[in-house]
Amino acid sequence: DYSLIKGGTNTPNFMIRQGTATSLADGTRTKVELNTAVFDTDSGLDAANDRWTVPAGKGGTYFITYTLRFETDVDFDGANALVYKNGAAFYSLWGAGRYYNSFSSSFIAVLAATDYLEMYGLQNTGGAVNASTSDQGLQTFLGGVRLTT
Q: In terms of CB atoms within 10 Å, which end of the chain has fewer, N or C?
């Protein structure tokens, strides 16, 4: 239940996820299809473009968090979970994929109205791998909360 944070003083706040699993091609940065809101206090989700956009008048300093789970039991090097800002790589986490690994990180960013965030994944298993949707809870998502104006 997310009702405790909806509409509080730290708005907007949001968490968006996939409606269905995104297939991540081998060796190619692939945009994760974040098109479903878990919650989104100020309606920043742009489902048609799989991204969250800072609403008008809501620029400020944001705490952003994200998780990408690679749905594979294949161990591989070259796993990358990225957040893009306005179409360019902004925050990146690298590692090695080990048996259904999740890659999670958080950061603080200054965002202006109309800035938008997207998530991308990269994997090198030799074949396509899904970004997991849910298995005993939400596994691939992008979320955030405005800390200050």
A: N
